[in-house]
Amino acid sequence: xxxxxxxRKGRTGRPRSAEADHAILRATRAALVDLGWGRLxxxxxxxxxGVAKTTLYRRWANxxxxxxxxxxxLFDELELPDRGSLRADIEGVVxxxxxxxxxxxxxxxxxxxxxxSTTDEALRERIRSAIVDRQKRLVLLGRARAQDxxxxxxxxxxxxxxxxxGRNMDLIFDVIAGAVVHRTLVSxxxxxAEWGRDFTALFLGGLAGLGDPGQGASSGAPQGPGxxxxxxxxxxx
Length: 237
Hints:
237 residues; mainly alpha; 0% strand
C-alpha cells in the first residue's frame, strides 16, 4: 500500500515523515471502521497512530481533509495492466475496483465522506480533486492504449476534438465508477467475474452486446469482434 498525502500548501517547519503519514492514514481508516464518522476524532487518530495531535494538525486542518486523504491513497492502488484488449482491460479494472470497495476500510470511509459532503461544498471539492480527478488517469490510459492497438479511432484534432475527448473521459469514468459503486455499496452485491463480463459487454456493445442471457457474455463464451469494440463511428471511448 502506498500511503501518501498531498502536501499542504503554506505549511512550514520540519520535513514531513513518510512513516508518520502512513501510520496516520492507516489509523484513520481503522478508527472509521471501529467508531464510524460521528465518533471519530483527531485525538482518536493521533492515539492510534502514536503521534502527537500537533503532528496531525500540521498535516491536516480537520477530520474531513484527513479522511479524504486516507481514502484517496486506497484508490491510488488501482492499476490498468495491459491485458491485450480493450474488453479485457475494462474487465480487469472493474474487478479491481469492486474488490477495493468490498474492503471494510474503503467502504466505511468512502460512504462516510460522501454522505458528509452533501452539506459541505469544500469537502465535495476535495473528494473531486483527491479521488475522482486522480483516478481519471485510468480512462486516459485505457483510451490511449486502445487507440494504439487500433481498437478505437484517434481523437479529432483541434480544440473541438480536445473538448469532446474531455467530455467522453468524464462520461466513461462516471458510467464505470457509478455502476461499480452502486453494485457494491448500494445493492450490496459482489462484483465478480460474471458481472464484470456482463457489464463490459453492455458498456462496449449496448444492450445488443449482452445477447442471449443463456449465451455470450453471461456464460463466458467468446464474443464476436463486432460486439466487443466500438467501430470508428462510435465515440463511446
